[in-house]
Write a structure and sequence with these properties.
Elements (H helix, E strand, L loop, with lengths): L1 E5 L6 H8 L4 E6 L13 H9 L3 E2 L7 H9 L4 E4 L8 H4 L6 E5 L11 H7 L4 E8 L9 E8 L6 H25 L31 H10 L6 E5 L7 E11 L13 E4 L3 E4 L4 E9 L5 E2 H7 L13
Parallel strand pairs: 1-2, 1-4, 2-3, 4-5
Antiparallel strand pairs: 5-6, 6-7, 8-9, 9-12, 10-11, 11-12, 12-13
Helix pairs in contact: 1-2, 1-6, 5-6, 5-7
Length: 316
Protein backbone atom coordinates (compact mmCIF):
# COMPACT_ATOMS: atom_id res chain seq x y z
CA UNK A 1 0.00 0.00 0.00
CA UNK A 2 1.12 3.56 -0.72
CA UNK A 3 0.96 5.48 2.56
CA UNK A 4 0.95 9.05 3.82
CA UNK A 5 2.02 8.94 7.49
CA UNK A 6 0.96 11.83 9.73
CA UNK A 7 2.43 12.26 13.21
CA UNK A 8 4.42 14.64 15.35
CA UNK A 9 5.05 13.22 18.83
CA UNK A 10 6.98 10.18 20.09
CA UNK A 11 3.96 7.85 20.27
CA UNK A 12 3.97 7.53 16.47
CA UNK A 13 7.67 6.73 16.00
CA UNK A 14 7.56 2.91 16.45
CA UNK A 15 4.70 2.77 13.93
CA UNK A 16 6.69 4.81 11.40
CA UNK A 17 9.71 2.54 11.79
CA UNK A 18 7.55 -0.57 11.38
CA UNK A 19 5.88 0.81 8.25
CA UNK A 20 9.21 1.77 6.68
CA UNK A 21 10.53 -1.76 7.31
CA UNK A 22 7.40 -3.38 5.86
CA UNK A 23 6.33 -4.14 2.27
CA UNK A 24 4.32 -0.89 2.25
CA UNK A 25 5.65 2.36 0.75
CA UNK A 26 5.82 5.48 2.94
CA UNK A 27 5.50 8.39 0.51
CA UNK A 28 5.86 11.28 2.97
CA UNK A 29 5.78 12.02 6.70
CA UNK A 30 3.50 14.94 7.58
CA UNK A 31 4.11 16.68 10.93
CA UNK A 32 2.80 19.79 12.64
CA UNK A 33 4.66 23.04 11.87
CA UNK A 34 7.16 24.74 14.22
CA UNK A 35 5.58 27.02 16.85
CA UNK A 36 6.74 30.59 17.34
CA UNK A 37 9.95 32.13 16.08
CA UNK A 38 12.39 30.34 18.36
CA UNK A 39 14.42 27.55 16.82
CA UNK A 40 13.21 24.34 18.43
CA UNK A 41 14.58 20.79 18.24
CA UNK A 42 12.90 18.66 15.59
CA UNK A 43 9.88 16.78 17.01
CA UNK A 44 10.34 13.01 17.37
CA UNK A 45 8.57 12.08 14.13
CA UNK A 46 10.58 14.57 12.09
CA UNK A 47 13.84 13.31 13.58
CA UNK A 48 12.85 9.69 12.93
CA UNK A 49 11.79 10.42 9.34
CA UNK A 50 15.05 12.20 8.59
CA UNK A 51 17.01 9.30 10.07
CA UNK A 52 15.10 6.90 7.82
CA UNK A 53 15.64 9.09 4.77
CA UNK A 54 11.94 9.86 4.32
CA UNK A 55 10.63 13.19 2.99
CA UNK A 56 9.03 15.45 5.60
CA UNK A 57 6.32 18.06 5.08
CA UNK A 58 5.11 20.41 7.85
CA UNK A 59 2.09 22.37 6.57
CA UNK A 60 0.40 25.06 8.66
CA UNK A 61 -2.73 22.91 8.49
CA UNK A 62 -3.52 19.71 6.66
CA UNK A 63 -7.08 20.99 6.24
CA UNK A 64 -6.18 23.94 4.00
CA UNK A 65 -7.30 23.55 0.39
CA UNK A 66 -3.71 23.80 -0.86
CA UNK A 67 -2.65 21.11 1.62
CA UNK A 68 -5.45 18.83 0.50
CA UNK A 69 -4.38 19.32 -3.11
CA UNK A 70 -0.79 18.41 -2.31
CA UNK A 71 -1.90 15.33 -0.35
CA UNK A 72 -4.08 14.26 -3.26
CA UNK A 73 -1.07 14.52 -5.54
CA UNK A 74 0.69 11.68 -3.71
CA UNK A 75 -2.00 9.30 -4.99
CA UNK A 76 -1.79 7.35 -1.75
CA UNK A 77 -3.97 4.41 -0.82
CA UNK A 78 -4.20 5.25 2.88
CA UNK A 79 -3.42 7.94 5.42
CA UNK A 80 -1.93 6.58 8.69
CA UNK A 81 -2.29 9.07 11.54
CA UNK A 82 -0.91 8.91 15.07
CA UNK A 83 -0.05 11.62 17.61
CA UNK A 84 -0.45 14.27 14.93
CA UNK A 85 -2.20 17.13 16.72
CA UNK A 86 -4.97 18.24 14.36
CA UNK A 87 -8.50 16.95 13.75
CA UNK A 88 -8.80 16.19 10.03
CA UNK A 89 -11.82 17.23 7.99
CA UNK A 90 -13.79 14.91 5.73
CA UNK A 91 -12.30 16.58 2.66
CA UNK A 92 -8.78 15.91 3.98
CA UNK A 93 -9.52 12.28 4.75
CA UNK A 94 -10.97 11.91 1.27
CA UNK A 95 -7.73 12.62 -0.57
CA UNK A 96 -6.57 8.99 -0.28
CA UNK A 97 -8.29 5.95 -1.76
CA UNK A 98 -9.17 4.33 1.59
CA UNK A 99 -9.32 7.42 3.79
CA UNK A 100 -7.39 7.40 7.05
CA UNK A 101 -6.72 5.21 10.09
CA UNK A 102 -5.61 6.46 13.49
CA UNK A 103 -3.68 4.72 16.28
CA UNK A 104 -5.03 5.88 19.66
CA UNK A 105 -3.56 4.99 23.06
CA UNK A 106 -6.68 3.68 24.79
CA UNK A 107 -9.34 1.01 24.57
CA UNK A 108 -11.85 3.19 22.76
CA UNK A 109 -14.51 4.40 23.35
CA UNK A 110 -12.81 4.95 26.71
CA UNK A 111 -10.57 8.02 26.95
CA UNK A 112 -11.21 9.96 23.77
CA UNK A 113 -8.93 12.98 23.61
CA UNK A 114 -5.36 14.20 23.87
CA UNK A 115 -4.22 12.46 27.08
CA UNK A 116 -5.65 8.91 27.15
CA UNK A 117 -2.63 7.24 28.74
CA UNK A 118 -2.34 9.84 31.50
CA UNK A 119 -6.00 9.55 32.46
CA UNK A 120 -5.86 5.75 32.56
CA UNK A 121 -3.04 5.97 35.12
CA UNK A 122 -4.64 8.86 37.02
CA UNK A 123 -7.80 6.81 37.45
CA UNK A 124 -5.90 3.77 38.66
CA UNK A 125 -6.94 1.50 35.77
CA UNK A 126 -5.54 -2.02 35.78
CA UNK A 127 -5.62 -2.32 31.99
CA UNK A 128 -5.02 -0.15 28.95
CA UNK A 129 -4.37 -0.70 25.29
CA UNK A 130 -4.40 0.75 21.79
CA UNK A 131 -7.14 1.05 19.18
CA UNK A 132 -6.85 1.58 15.44
CA UNK A 133 -9.93 3.37 14.14
CA UNK A 134 -11.25 4.32 10.74
CA UNK A 135 -11.03 8.09 10.89
CA UNK A 136 -14.03 10.42 10.92
CA UNK A 137 -14.13 14.17 11.69
CA UNK A 138 -15.33 13.39 15.24
CA UNK A 139 -12.74 13.19 18.04
CA UNK A 140 -11.58 9.54 18.19
CA UNK A 141 -15.12 8.48 17.29
CA UNK A 142 -14.64 6.35 14.17
CA UNK A 143 -15.31 2.61 13.90
CA UNK A 144 -12.72 0.33 15.49
CA UNK A 145 -10.57 -1.78 13.16
CA UNK A 146 -8.53 -3.51 15.86
CA UNK A 147 -7.41 -3.37 19.49
CA UNK A 148 -4.54 -4.66 21.61
CA UNK A 149 -4.52 -4.80 25.42
CA UNK A 150 -1.82 -4.31 28.08
CA UNK A 151 -1.91 -4.71 31.85
CA UNK A 152 -0.81 -1.57 33.72
CA UNK A 153 1.87 -2.15 36.33
CA UNK A 154 0.73 -0.53 39.62
CA UNK A 155 4.04 1.33 39.90
CA UNK A 156 4.60 2.50 36.31
CA UNK A 157 4.19 6.11 35.25
CA UNK A 158 2.14 7.43 32.37
CA UNK A 159 5.37 7.98 30.43
CA UNK A 160 6.47 4.38 30.91
CA UNK A 161 3.06 3.03 29.92
CA UNK A 162 2.92 5.29 26.87
CA UNK A 163 6.25 3.93 25.66
CA UNK A 164 5.02 0.34 25.98
CA UNK A 165 1.76 1.18 24.22
CA UNK A 166 3.57 2.89 21.36
CA UNK A 167 5.69 -0.23 20.76
CA UNK A 168 2.68 -2.54 21.01
CA UNK A 169 0.67 -0.33 18.65
CA UNK A 170 3.02 -0.75 15.68
CA UNK A 171 2.19 -4.42 14.91
CA UNK A 172 -1.49 -3.61 15.42
CA UNK A 173 -1.30 -0.93 12.71
CA UNK A 174 0.48 -3.34 10.36
CA UNK A 175 -2.20 -5.96 10.95
CA UNK A 176 -5.02 -3.52 10.21
CA UNK A 177 -3.33 -2.22 7.05
CA UNK A 178 -2.87 -5.80 5.87
CA UNK A 179 -6.59 -6.47 6.42
CA UNK A 180 -7.54 -3.29 4.56
CA UNK A 181 -5.30 -4.30 1.66
CA UNK A 182 -6.86 -7.77 1.56
CA UNK A 183 -10.41 -6.43 1.93
CA UNK A 184 -10.96 -8.42 5.14
CA UNK A 185 -11.12 -5.52 7.66
CA UNK A 186 -14.25 -5.54 9.82
CA UNK A 187 -15.06 -2.08 11.27
CA UNK A 188 -17.02 -2.11 14.54
CA UNK A 189 -18.98 0.95 15.64
CA UNK A 190 -18.01 2.35 19.03
CA UNK A 191 -20.60 2.29 21.82
CA UNK A 192 -21.19 6.01 22.36
CA UNK A 193 -22.79 5.37 25.75
CA UNK A 194 -19.41 4.09 27.04
CA UNK A 195 -17.37 7.03 25.75
CA UNK A 196 -15.27 9.01 28.25
CA UNK A 197 -13.06 12.04 27.74
CA UNK A 198 -9.31 12.44 28.24
CA UNK A 199 -8.59 16.17 27.87
CA UNK A 200 -5.07 17.60 27.76
CA UNK A 201 -3.52 18.16 31.20
CA UNK A 202 -2.42 21.53 32.58
CA UNK A 203 0.47 22.39 34.89
CA UNK A 204 -1.97 23.38 37.64
CA UNK A 205 -3.38 19.86 37.71
CA UNK A 206 -0.08 18.63 39.08
CA UNK A 207 -0.83 20.08 42.53
CA UNK A 208 -1.27 17.26 45.07
CA UNK A 209 -4.49 17.22 47.10
CA UNK A 210 -3.47 15.56 50.36
CA UNK A 211 -7.11 15.10 51.41
CA UNK A 212 -7.39 12.22 48.93
CA UNK A 213 -6.46 8.64 49.79
CA UNK A 214 -2.82 7.53 49.62
CA UNK A 215 -3.55 5.22 46.68
CA UNK A 216 -5.33 7.94 44.69
CA UNK A 217 -2.48 10.39 45.31
CA UNK A 218 0.02 7.76 44.18
CA UNK A 219 -1.99 7.29 40.97
CA UNK A 220 -2.05 11.07 40.52
CA UNK A 221 1.73 11.30 40.84
CA UNK A 222 2.22 8.39 38.38
CA UNK A 223 -0.21 9.94 35.92
CA UNK A 224 1.53 13.33 36.01
CA UNK A 225 4.91 11.85 35.04
CA UNK A 226 6.75 12.88 32.93
CA UNK A 227 4.55 15.97 32.42
CA UNK A 228 3.34 18.17 34.03
CA UNK A 229 4.73 16.39 37.15
CA UNK A 230 3.07 16.40 40.55
CA UNK A 231 4.06 18.99 43.16
CA UNK A 232 3.31 20.32 46.61
CA UNK A 233 4.56 23.16 48.81
CA UNK A 234 6.82 22.61 51.83
CA UNK A 235 6.84 25.13 54.71
CA UNK A 236 10.20 26.79 55.33
CA UNK A 237 11.49 28.38 58.52
CA UNK A 238 12.10 31.60 56.63
CA UNK A 239 10.50 32.91 53.46
CA UNK A 240 7.88 31.47 51.17
CA UNK A 241 6.99 27.77 51.06
CA UNK A 242 9.26 25.70 48.81
CA UNK A 243 7.76 24.17 45.67
CA UNK A 244 8.59 20.47 45.73
CA UNK A 245 8.06 18.23 42.71
CA UNK A 246 7.22 14.64 43.66
CA UNK A 247 8.25 11.99 41.14
CA UNK A 248 7.96 8.70 43.01
CA UNK A 249 6.09 7.55 46.11
CA UNK A 250 4.85 4.41 47.76
CA UNK A 251 1.88 3.70 49.99
CA UNK A 252 2.94 3.07 53.58
CA UNK A 253 1.14 0.00 54.83
CA UNK A 254 -0.30 0.33 58.34
CA UNK A 255 0.86 3.92 58.69
CA UNK A 256 -0.72 5.82 61.51
CA UNK A 257 -0.25 8.60 64.01
CA UNK A 258 -0.84 8.91 67.80
CA UNK A 259 -4.05 10.82 67.10
CA UNK A 260 -6.03 12.37 64.28
CA UNK A 261 -3.84 14.47 61.99
CA UNK A 262 -4.73 16.75 59.11
CA UNK A 263 -4.00 15.51 55.58
CA UNK A 264 -0.60 16.78 54.43
CA UNK A 265 0.95 16.52 57.89
CA UNK A 266 4.52 15.22 57.94
CA UNK A 267 4.59 12.03 60.04
CA UNK A 268 8.26 11.12 59.63
CA UNK A 269 11.21 13.24 58.49
CA UNK A 270 14.38 11.45 59.56
CA UNK A 271 15.10 8.07 57.99
CA UNK A 272 12.29 8.62 55.49
CA UNK A 273 9.76 11.29 54.51
CA UNK A 274 6.19 10.17 55.25
CA UNK A 275 3.12 12.35 54.79
CA UNK A 276 -0.43 11.75 56.02
CA UNK A 277 -3.20 11.57 53.43
CA UNK A 278 -6.95 11.72 53.72
CA UNK A 279 -6.75 7.95 54.07
CA UNK A 280 -3.43 6.27 54.84
CA UNK A 281 0.01 7.76 54.24
CA UNK A 282 2.66 8.04 51.53
CA UNK A 283 6.42 7.77 51.66
CA UNK A 284 8.03 10.24 49.27
CA UNK A 285 10.90 8.48 47.48
CA UNK A 286 12.13 10.83 44.68
CA UNK A 287 11.63 14.59 44.76
CA UNK A 288 12.96 17.74 43.13
CA UNK A 289 13.08 21.00 45.10
CA UNK A 290 12.62 24.18 43.06
CA UNK A 291 15.89 25.18 41.41
CA UNK A 292 17.65 21.87 42.16
CA UNK A 293 18.10 18.45 40.60
CA UNK A 294 15.95 15.42 41.20
CA UNK A 295 17.08 13.50 44.28
CA UNK A 296 16.13 10.81 46.76
CA UNK A 297 13.87 12.13 49.51
CA UNK A 298 16.45 11.05 52.09
CA UNK A 299 19.01 13.39 50.46
CA UNK A 300 16.45 16.19 50.43
CA UNK A 301 15.85 15.72 54.18
CA UNK A 302 19.54 16.25 54.95
CA UNK A 303 19.37 19.83 53.71
CA UNK A 304 15.79 20.73 54.58
CA UNK A 305 14.52 21.77 57.99
CA UNK A 306 11.42 19.59 57.91
CA UNK A 307 10.02 18.11 61.10
CA UNK A 308 7.12 15.83 62.00
CA UNK A 309 4.05 17.99 62.43
CA UNK A 310 4.88 20.31 59.53
CA UNK A 311 2.15 20.54 56.94
CA UNK A 312 2.45 20.25 53.17
CA UNK A 313 0.47 22.95 51.39
CA UNK A 314 -2.28 21.96 48.99
CA UNK A 315 -2.95 25.45 47.66
CA UNK A 316 -1.10 27.69 45.23
Amino acid sequence: MRLVVMGTGPFAVPTLRALQASEHEVLVVVARPPRGRRREPAPPMVAAAEELGLPVWRPESANLSESQERLRGYEADLMVVCDYGEILKDATLGVTRLGGVNLHGSLLPKYRGAAPVQWAVLNGDAESGSTVIQMTPGLDAGPSLGQSRLAIDPHETAGELEERLSEAGAPLVLRVIGELAAGTATPELQDKSQATKAPRLSKEQGLVDWSRSAQKIKNHIRGMAPWPRAFTFVPMEKGEPLRLVIDRVDVVEGAGAPGPVAPGTVLEAKERLVVACGEGALELLDVQPAGKRRMAATDFLRGAAIKPGNSMRTDL
